[in-house]
Write a structure and sequence with these properties.
The protein has 385 residues and is α/β, with parallel strands linked by helices. It is built from three helices and 31 strands. It has three domains: 221 residues; 88 residues, Sandwich (Immunoglobulin-like), CATH 2.60.40.2310; 58 residues.
Length: 385
């Protein structure tokens, strides 16, 4: 506990010194500076980037650090990059930005993105620590490794922003930060605990801080494209009644739930304006209410740019006769069929193939009669009431 309290007060002191401009012996950047591609820099003092300043480090730049001669910042021995402004590290896979101690005896450098600071990084290879404070912003293109931490620690608390997601593939995973020593990452990005699902660039992602060979890589995985379905399709219902439909998503809803808007067309139907799929769920149900008119209509669900429609068929309710009348009708129909059957068979004794059509009609009539009989038995149990 004492360690964390001490660290807190050192952090607070450093922020005060930076804000007051009291870090006199450190190099303070108030404007825009660029370290051009493939330059070599040896740094022996802290570099403080003010809220109005920016430092851009281009591909291939190497930064060798010694013991901090300014004795400032959070760590009085290590060289620290303390940014409250904009810091852009734009390394490339075949030409990374390399930051590390000049000699094995020199303290490992620290890159610290402080509250209000914005760090954009790609292909930073650092033999030292990377610290992203709460209130800072870390901008990453998922297709580019942001930081490979050869040795040192990683502390995460700031906001993660993904850019360039149009170049990513559904279902693919991307490493953002890769500690090489097996040291676990401390903390998480703001609002993104282990396994969190979040939206960036119009698509959904999952994040883990336990990936890679050491179980310490920070990895984001793009989910497959969201899909939408409505069921049942079609929905058959009588007039002046209510029924239930279900909207289903291909991917679970993100934090806060996924709002799906509902509209209708065609025959008179009433549905709620929206239905919300709860966070982590893939479906939600809603009521459909029909009017007094029979006919067909549609219900359309929309989320983002995805829409799905289902047909609703509305019919006037069938008036069902009492079982006694239905049984009586079935018996009369059977008797009529028997009479017609005998007549057809008598006339066909001498007609030969000329009776084929009459016999076919008789078979259809028998099928209809059988269906009606089954319905009466099913509904009325064979009795007349």
């Amino acid at each position: 506990m004492a360690q964390y309290i001490s660290r807190f007060f050192l952090s607070l002191l450093a922020i005060v010194l930076l804000a007051a401009g009291a870090d006199a012996s450190a190099l303070t950047i108030f404007d825009s500076q660029i370290w051009s591609a493939n330059e070599a820099h040896t740094v022996g003092e802290d570099i403080a980037i003010t809220s109005a300043g920016s430092l851009t480090i281009e591909p291939g730049v190497s930064v060798a650090t010694t013991t901090d001669t300014s004795s400032s910042g959070y760590d009085l021995l290590a060289v620290e990059f303390l940014s409250q402004g904009q810091m852009t590290i734009s390394g490339q896979q075949d030409n990374p930005v390399i930051v590390g101690p000049l000699a094995l005896t020199d303290p490992k450098p620290i890159i610290r993105n402080m509250p209000g600071g914005v760090l954009s990084a790609s292909w930073l290879v650092i033999s030292g620590s990377l610290i992203l404070d709460s209130g800072s912003t870390f901008i990453v293109n998922p297709t580019q490794l942001a930081a490979k931490v050869q040795s040192g620690n990683v502390f995460l608390a700031g906001e993660l922003v993904l850019q360039g997601v149009s170049a990513t593939e559904p279902g693919a995973s991307y490493v953002l930060v890769s500690p090489q020593t097996g040291n676990p990452v401390s903390g998480t990005f703001a609002g993104l605990p282990e396994g969190a699902r979040f939206e960036a660039g119009g698509v959904y992602w999952l994040i883990t801080y336990q990936g890679g060979a050491y179980g310490t890589d920070v990895i984001v995985t793009r989910e497959g494209m969201q899909t939408l379905a409505l069921a049942p399709d079609p929905l058959n219902m009588p007039t002046n009644s209510a029924a239930e439909m279900t909207v289903s998503l291909g991917n679970p809803a993100a934090a806060g739930g996924e709002v799906v808007s509902l509209t209708v067309s065609g025959v008179q139907l009433t549905v709620p304006g929206i239905v919300t799929v709860p966070a982590g769920s893939t479906s939600a149900s809603f009521s459909v209410v029909s009017g007094s008119a029979a006919g067909s209509g549609t219900v359309t669900a929309t989320t983002g740019t995805i829409s799905k429609s289902a047909v609703v068929n509305i019919a006037a309710p069938t008036i069902q006769l009492p079982c006694g009348e239905r049984t009586k009708d079935a018996v009369n129909a059977a008797m009529s069929y028997a009479q017609e059957s005998r007549a057809v068979k008598r006339s066909c004794k001498t007609a030969g193939n000329a009776c084929d059509e009459a016999l076919a009609d008789l078979a259809v009539a028998f099928a209809i009669l059988s269906t009606a009989h089954v319905n009466v038995v099913t509904d009325c149990g064979g009795g007349g009431q």
